[in-house]
Amino acid sequence: MTKNHFFIELVEYYDIKESELYNNAYGVPTSAYAVIDVNGRFLLGYNKWRDQWEFPAGKIDSGENAIDAARRELLEETHQDVEDLTFCGMFKIYDSKSKEYRFRAVYYGKIDEIEPFVTEEEDEMAQICLWEFGRNNIYVDEVDCKMIEMAVINNDKLARHS
Question: What's the CATH code, domain 8-161?
Answer without folding.
Answer: 3.90.79.10
